[in-house]
Amino acid sequence: MELYVTGSNIFNQWLCDDFVINEFRICSPSNHKLETDGNRTILLQINWSYNILQINDTLHISGAWDGKENQFIKVPLPNDCVKSKEELCITGNDYKIIVVDKKMSIIWVLDLKTKEFKNLNFLIEEPIEDGTKKKKLDDNVSKVILSSDSCLYLTQRGYVYSGILPSYVDTGHCTGKVIDVQCGYEHFILLTEEGRVYTWGNGRRLQLGHGDISSLEIPTEVNALAGIKIIKISAGGWHSLALSEFGDVYAWGLNDTGQQGIKHLNEEHNESFSVPTLVSLFDEQGIEITRNVKDIACGSKHSALLLDDNTVWTAGCNKYGQLGISEQKYPSSNYFRNVFQCDKEDRNYSLICGPWNTVICCTFVKKS
Amino acid sequence: MLALREICYKLEEYKTNVATALPEIEDLDPATKSLLHRYINSTESTDPSSTIRIQAILDYMYEKINIGNWKEVKLFIRKAITIATYLKLLAHVRFSDEDTDTMIKQAYKIIDFGILFGCPLDKQPRLLQNCATILNTVNIQKNIILKDTTSKEKNNATSDTSIEADKFNAIQIETIDCPSMEHFYKNYILAEKPVILDNCINHWPALEKWKDQNYFIKLAGPRTVSIEIGSKYTDKDWTQRLITIDEFVKQYIYQTEGPTGYLAQYQLFDQIPELKNDITEPEYCCFSDSNEPVDVMAWYGPKGTVSPLHHDPKKNLLTQVVGEKQLFLFAPADSEYLYPHEHELLNNTAQVDPRQPDLDKYPKYKSSKPYYCRLKPGQMLYIPPKWWHFVESLSISFSVSFWWE
């Protein structure tokens, strides 16, 4: 896997010296110190001070570790975790890393301060009719995300749990099985198989997309997207993006640095949109681009799009080079700019953002 | 006037004290904490390449304090802002290649960001204010307004309170002359009754000094404050903005067009302690049910600032220093006649405008009993807890409120 990286390198998490990377630059973490052929490297998550990488079955951290920056560390997993040989779900925030064994349903919590693992039992259960007893379901964890102070788990059967010690989130009213969940700083989004989008959490900065600043305790369908089949969702710090089956992107929430990327006639204008609003893209001559978007990702105050011609477009805050262009010249951009062209044949490209980073993951297409 | 080298030296003297405050950020994330520890305990922070990391810490912590309600933000995050601000200031003063004027003005901006968004360290509570005091010893160019900026006192008696009160069908609020502590306590605090106190602050230097708007520019022109823009906070286009005092006086105190700017409910005296010498805390505030210090707030703005009808939980002595304000007060029992907003964030605010009550929309207002006054320089108005009040400035105005429990 190759990574094209731009943005913050404050903790040397991209294993180079510049604190700010302001153009997409190749970074191959698995080449660093331990390259052997056939390594399967996956960039799992980009955080403020470190990145989480999975190299084969091992967990690696790049960036800040144990009071030092510029580290590349293989994190020793607890014995029972290694022995299980099951697939792992891994996520982290500024304080903790969570490792979940998909089958065993045990949660190992690594405290980044003490470097100690603690484990918790994860009983997958759902309250049954009478509301008192709980039944255990035969189910596996498929995703876990930890962001700021929030944590969400998603299972293969489509159940959602919140909190590090998981508590059941009722999604019984949602149409279709839940297939993805996303966490903003204080809001949550879920996507169902039917292509419907539900949001909940704090709505003070319009990030829930229901047209007001109310907060919601239960996942509530975003009406403005009703009738549009959504295939991918992404939550930024206080904004959100959704990608439709036709390759259209909708944005809503805070727009203080132009992170919604919606070009306005008045160039200085950073109006926030309280409901999902279609994003249009324009080339340098101001002519609208009709190509489809195939991937979306949000950072804390920026957004990135990948089009079907493998061009990458970014908008929002660029203070740390997260848009892939000069931060001196463009401190922010309130519309999407074409900033990169992925040009290698036979590769698959996808996007992943950290709070202040944009990364293009490039993998070889498997030949059958 | 100190040489810049001495300024650097004086600022760095706090470093050992700040180091003793590091346990106060023990709960910070390990990566940020180890950077701050290293920079405070070594000379590495004065390596120019570290400034970008210190700025990144400030930016990241600023994102953190914007998550959730301001009152629930963890203090260690705000303390990290204070410490990072101090480090940024040291590097700025030492390495800035700007001319002294620009450098010092930028240094105040750095400090004021830390004062506004950080919070005091237990071990060194006045760290950033003290740093500002050190910078004050450098004389810099102040952009004084050349025209006469002294507020003119109106001598005409057309604005007689009793006539105005009649016009609004309101009861004129009683005025008493510098009452004894016992009299005030028994008849107003215990009775929860509003009253105007005359001749209690005649000794305040502020009464003379603050008439001249250049005084604020001279004393604190380059300092950054947070102001409210829009005529009242219930308006849709109401917003807040950071601005220097210099710009505020020029753009908002003397402007007649465009949106209103109001330095409202602002802890100016914590930020600029020199201004505290111009006022004194009224002795009446000693009748307190708690040990909490009195909240002293500044309210400085042009003619036409409006605080919509609202109530506060604490006792309030609103002191008029410069200019005039008109106020409408209502007893807590009148709430149902005033139509409070239903949204949880605004339910201490009512929808009626007592100047022009819309009786079709708010018919019950007829049953309310408004109290009215025009507060003049040198007067203090006692507003009992939970009493509704509507405030409008009738000229350039500077008031100081004292809130206590």
Nutshell version of this structure?
The complex is a heterodimer of chains A (368) and B (405). By secondary structure, chain A is mainly beta.
What topology does this entry show?
The complex is a heterodimer of chains A (368) and B (405).
Chain A: E1 2-8, E2 20-27, E3 41-46, E4 50-55, E5 58-65, E6 68-75, H1 79-84, E7 88-92, E8 96-101, E9 106-111, E10 116-121, E11 125-127, E12 134-136, E13 141-147, E14 150-155, E15 160-162, E16 167-169, E17 178-183, E18 187-192, E19 197-201, E20 216-221, E21 230-235, E22 239-244, E23 249-253, E24 273-278, E25 281-282, E26 288-289, E27 293-298, E28 302-307, E29 311-317, E30 332-341, E31 347-354, E32 357-364
Antiparallel strand pairs in A: 1-2, 1-32, 3-4, 4-5, 5-6, 7-8, 8-9, 9-10, 11-12, 13-14, 14-15, 15-16, 17-18, 18-19, 19-20, 21-22, 22-23, 23-24, 25-26, 27-28, 28-29, 29-30, 31-32
Chain B: H1 4-12, H2 15-20, H3 30-41, H4 51-65, H5 75-95, H6 100-117, H7 127-135, H8 161-167, E1 171-172, E2 175-177, H9 181-189, E3 195-198, H10 206-209, H11 214-220, E4 224-229, E5 239-244, H12 245-253, E6 261-266, H13 268-271, E7 295-301, E8 306-310, E9 315-322, E10 325-330, E11 371-375, E12 380-383, E13 388-393, E14 397-404
Parallel strand pairs in B: 1-11, 2-3
Antiparallel strand pairs in B: 3-12, 4-5, 4-6, 6-7, 7-14, 8-13, 9-12, 9-14, 10-11, 10-13
Helix pairs in contact in B: 3-5, 4-5, 5-6, 6-7
* CATH fold-type name of one domain in chain A: Methylamine Dehydrogenase, Chain H
CATH class placement of the largest domain in chain B: Mainly Beta
Sheet with most strands: strand arrangement of chain B: 2-3-12-9-14-7-6-4-5
What's the story with the biggest beta sheet of chain B? Answer: 9 strands, mixed
CATH homology superfamily name of the largest domain in chain B: Cupin
Number of domains of chain B: 2
Percentage of β-strand residues of chain A: over 45%
Principal-axis shape of chain B:
globular
Largest sheet properties of chain A: 4 strands, antiparallel
The chain-level mean pLDDT of chain A equals 90
In CATH, the architecture of the largest domain in chain B is: Sandwich
The CATH architecture classification of one domain in chain A is 7 Propeller
Largest interface (C-beta under 8 Å): A-B, 30 and 17 residues
Pfam family, one (chain A): RCC1
Organism (chain A): Spodoptera littoralis
Protein name (chain A): RCC1 domain-containing protein 1
InterPro entries (chain B): Cupin_8 (IPR041667), JmjC_dom (IPR003347)
